Amino acid sequence: MNAIGVVKEINQEEYAPTAITKALGLNRALFGGYRYEYLRFSAATRSLINMPYYFEKTGFKNVEGPPGPFQDAQGTDDNMFSWIMKDPLMTADFNAFVTGHAVNRKQWFESFDAEDILLRGTKTDPDATLMVDVGGGEGYDIAMFHKRYPDAPGRLILQDLPPAIDNLKELPPKVERQQHDFFQPQPVKGARCYYFHNILHNWPDADCVKILKSTAEAMTPGYSKLLISEFVLPTSNTPLYPALLDIHMMAILNAMERTEAQYSKLLDAAGLKVVKVWSVGAETEGIVEAVLKT
Hints:
Elements lengths: L6 E5 L2 E4 L1 H8 L1 H12 L3 H15 L11 H6 L5 H5 L3 H15 L11 H6 L9 E6 L5 H9 L6 E6 L1 H4 L9 E5 L13 E5 L7 H12 L8 E6 L1 E2 L6 H14 L4 E2 H10 L2 E7 L7 E7 L2
Parallel strand pairs: 3-4, 3-6, 4-5, 6-7, 8-9
Antiparallel strand pairs: 1-2, 7-11, 10-11
Helix pairs in contact: 1-2, 2-6, 3-11
């Protein structure tokens, strides 16, 4: 640890913390991410190292569906999420990591005209639903939306599996939590906005279509919006970080980051269509705005 800067040797067999150690101790998201990626079970590292051997077995073809690089590296039939959820500590580390990934970044609703797209024309009935954060983890995105628009009418609902939301303590009172598996039919009908942040990049195409169809069936034509907050890859000259993330998704989830054309294909297969792709640059997550096809 001294050699990599995690501690500093000040005398023989005597060590002091470094800036890295202090950061890991103070920042839950950073510590969770470090342990999730490298220490606890090395989901990403082990899968990335194994990729050349895995693709040698497949004839260097990307095979959609299990077993993928993760299953091959870990010797399991589970996908990464199922594997993580068998251990509460892994689950906590992962949730902290993905929540921290969004902190200190441009907020999703700053990437497009949220007031015009979401709030203008929304139902003012207090029982109507303004936003459903599907698979929203610890609720960072929906909480920030509420902080920015505290007087917006309608319900705000955070959905995820029980391990992610059952023990949350920091949600605003306005935000309701609801257990939901996004492969199952969406129970909230006719919301103004169904929001997906870094969901589709975790799944192969066939699974993405299932997820989108489950939500599309709950949408109201001419009113409901589906918003996807993810990287939208350019067709050439992809910057380093989204390119690395694309490889990362392939290694651990047999999935990918996508171009606008690839999103359009997925949405079309689920009965939806792209209205607009809101982008503030190739190195920042964009917003894919979609509605039901008519």
